[in-house]
């Protein structure tokens, strides 16, 4: 498994989609703070500081930037195996399709953590450039952990979409668009079970995001329901992994045997 993880990580050097994720995470804090500058002075928050900026970044990352970036990158990692007809090679090497896909999802989780560290650094740089108040060493540590944890939870939520759309030739871009709508939908959940259990809302709740203050929620979310939501999506990933890739590898095996028979008949 370690060799698989290492090889998948090296493949990311050829993934230009990574630039999309880096640019998106760079723009997130800039856009969040910029929205304050272009806002009508009467509506502008005079107490906008680092805690507000980090809260806005958590919201923006979860709603738009991280899900799109992770689904595009993870989908590309899986799609290239089918686009290059590489999956048929699994017939002659001791690696099952579910194991290969597990390694790819593992790299997505690692990449999400890297994205979280990068997002923290960019947010700090943006806030310091803007001269925002409320910065301290303990605050940096606490918020850094929240952002990285939030990124990791986002990767768990995105994994079923990565598996589904990554295995359909060229569909991972469509999957990222669907992910955008799924993430955007959480802003409509202000109360009830979905406020806590909806996967993207659950990510925010478990990241320490104040849904009442920053999302206008009408009631306090239930962390236990949020845990249940993440557990359910993780279980779905496990089910999809157990049934993924097998059919296509068997089809590739049949095609390989047919090709050998044809070549033998020509001889």
UniProtKB/TrEMBL annotation:
Keyword Transmembrane: yes
Pfam families: ABC2_membrane_4
Nucleotide-binding as UniProt keyword: no
TM spans (from-to): 58-78, 105-128, 140-164, 195-212, 224-243
Chain segments carrying region Disordered: 246-267
Keywords: Membrane, Transmembrane, Transmembrane helix
Superkingdom of origin: Bacteria
Biased composition (Basic residues): 257-267
Protein name as annotated: ABC transporter permease
């Amino acid at each position: 498994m370690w060799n698989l993880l290492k090889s998948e990580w090296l493949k990311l050097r050829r993934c230009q989609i990574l630039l999309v994720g880096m640019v998106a995470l760079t723009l997130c804090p800039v856009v969040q703070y910029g929205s304050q500058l272009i806002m009508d002075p009467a509506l502008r928050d005079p107490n906008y500081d680092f805690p507000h900026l980090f809260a806005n970044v958590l919201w923006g990352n979860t709603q738009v930037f991280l899900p799109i970036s992770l689904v595009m990158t993870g989908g590309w990692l899986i799609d290239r195996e089918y686009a290059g007809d590489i999956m048929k090679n699994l017939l002659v090497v001791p690696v099952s399709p579910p194991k290969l896909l597990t390694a790819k999802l593992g790299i997505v989780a690692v990449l999400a953590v890297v994205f979280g560290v990068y997002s923290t650094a960019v947010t700090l740089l943006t806030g310091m450039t803007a001269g925002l108040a409320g910065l301290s060493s303990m605050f940096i540590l606490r918020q850094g952990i929240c952002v990285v944890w939030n990124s990791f939870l986002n990767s768990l939520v995105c994994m079923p979409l990565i598996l589904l759309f990554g295995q359909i030739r060229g569909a991972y871009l469509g999957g990222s668009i669907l992910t955008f709508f799924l993430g955007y939908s959480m802003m409509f959940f202000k109360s009830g079970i979905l406020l806590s259990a909806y996967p993207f809302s659950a990510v925010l709740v478990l990241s320490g995001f104040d849904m009442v203050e920053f999302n206008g929620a009408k009631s306090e979310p239930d962390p236990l329901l949020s845990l249940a939501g993440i557990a359910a999506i993780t279980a779905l990933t496990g089910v999809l992994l157990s049934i993924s890739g097998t059919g296509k590898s068997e089809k590739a095996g049949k095609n390989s045997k047919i090709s050998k028979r044809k070549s033998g008949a020509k001889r």
